[in-house]
């Protein structure tokens, strides 16, 4: 049998005071800077067509660069997909550098910089779908060890790349500011 929790003085809590609906609301999330300024009541949002176009153009460019990497460094059937691992790790490291620079050095970058380079180029360059197909192909081809290795190594290396590159970039920026070489 469950007993209700008691307050420090031993009395049962007032349900009206402990109900989730009575908790204060968190502050509103900031508006994504790529989407433009917050709107006043009744104001119409500006067109998102430029953002979508920047993402599409950047995505096409990133996908072409990734395709070029797979042509220059093809993965033989049944072997470890090193090319896609390297592409994903390099793309994640580049994202860490990009986001650190945009927040630390160039916060007033043009509105389409992050959608073009981050979501577009780096989103088109990196690939979850090819990674998933590679894992499935290795499993189906009788290489479960390689499949599990690809599965775990890609995630671990990509997370290490984005966090490490971000940390190194922010550290370099702070060091540069301390030495007076960055504004």
Number of helices: 6
Secondary structure: helix percent: 55-70%
Shape: extended
Kindly report how far apart the N and C termini lie.
Answer: 64 Å
Task: Estimate the mean pLDDT confidence.
Answer: 86
Quickly give the structural class. Answer: mainly alpha
Protein name: CrcB family protein
Organism: Streptomyces fungicidicus
Can you walk me through this structure?
This is CrcB family protein. The chain is an all-alpha fold. It has helices at 15-18, 49-72, 82-104, 113-125, 129-140, 144-179. Helix 5 (129-140) packs antiparallel against helix 6. The protein is extended and about 55 Å long. The chain starts with 14 loop residues before the first helix and ends with a helix.
Concise account of the structure shown:
This protein has 6 helices and no strands. With 183 residues, the protein is mainly alpha-helical.
What descriptors fit this protein?
0% strand; mainly alpha; 183 residues; extended
Q: Mind sketching the topology for me?
A:
Layout: H1 15-18, H2 49-72, H3 82-104, H4 113-125, H5 129-140, H6 144-179
